[in-house]
């Protein structure tokens, strides 16, 4: 009879050991799940921050651009181009002195705009120091700077020739346009 009680005590000890083992496995699973959740949450936060930064950068580049509506050979000087422009939607007011340009033909003509290069479209007069959003402007781009000439009267640009124009806004974006000369007369539209 004594051995019978002893066998029962041993059997009870095995059941207790199985319960303790299950509890250890259960706690380990909770710890693993907590670590996995922390990694997933951290990854999600980092992805959200990257997406936010990319969105902000894209908005800055798109909103900080000059939109070109039309381009003509300047009636006052065929070396220059008259651009009818406005700032892209969502842009902040932009000082004209932060806008630079590049013209590429057989040579490269580049420079920065001055207040004298930009006038209000509604009046066509006056000098604009700061371009405001949703306002039209007339911008004069010199085609002849420092002896390099991409203007229509240069003799190197003729009907069918192309001039590549870039407008760069300080910390904003850049605008690219290919000007194809179809008519050399003053005031002719450049497409």
Write the layout of secondary structure elements.
Blueprint: H1 2-63, E1 66-73, E2 80-87, E3 94-95, E4 99-104, E5 108-112, E6 118-120, E7 130-131, E8 137-142, E9 144-145, E10 148-149, E11 162-169, E12 174-180
Antiparallel strand pairs: 1-2, 2-8, 3-7, 4-5, 4-11, 6-8, 9-10, 11-12
Strand order of the largest sheet: 1-2-8-6
User: How many structural domains does the protein architecture include?
Assistant: 2
Secondary structure tally: strands: 12
* DSSP summary: helix tally: 1
**Roughly how many Å apart are the termini?**
111 Å
Tell me about the largest β-sheet.
Answer: 4 strands, antiparallel
| Helix residue percentage | 25-40%
Residues in β-strands, percent: 25-35%
Quickly give the CATH architecture of the largest domain: Sandwich
CATH fold name of the largest domain: Immunoglobulin-like
Order of helices and strands: HEEEEEEEEEEEE
Coarse shape: rod-shaped
Which structural class is indicated by helix and strand composition? alpha+beta
Q: Can you tell me the CATH class of the largest domain? A: Mainly Beta
Radius of gyration: 35 Å
Unreliable parts = none
Mean pLDDT: 82
């Amino acid at each position: 009879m004594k051995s019978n009680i002893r066998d029962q005590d041993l059997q009870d000890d095995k059941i207790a050991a199985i319960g303790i083992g299950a509890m250890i496995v259960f706690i380990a699973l909770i710890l693993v799940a907590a670590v996995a959740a922390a990694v997933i949450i951290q990854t999600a936060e980092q992805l959200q921050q990257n997406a936010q930064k990319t969105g902000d950068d894209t908005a800055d580049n798109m909103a900080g651009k000059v939109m070109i509506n039309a381009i003509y050979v300047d009636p006052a000087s065929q070396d220059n181009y008259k651009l009818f422009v406005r700032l892209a939607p969502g842009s902040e007011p932009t000082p004209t002195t932060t806008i630079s340009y590049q013209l590429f033909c057989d040579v490269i003509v580049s420079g920065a705009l001055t207040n004298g290069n930009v006038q209000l479209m509604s009046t066509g007069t006056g000098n604009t120091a700061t371009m405001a959003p949703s306002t039209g402007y007339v911008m004069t781009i010199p085609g002849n700077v420092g002896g390099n000439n991409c203007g229509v009267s240069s003799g190197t640009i003729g009907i069918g020739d192309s001039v590549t124009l870039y407008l760069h806004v300080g910390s904003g974006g850049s605008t690219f346009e290919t000007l194809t000369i179809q008519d050399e007369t003053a005031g002719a539209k450049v497409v």
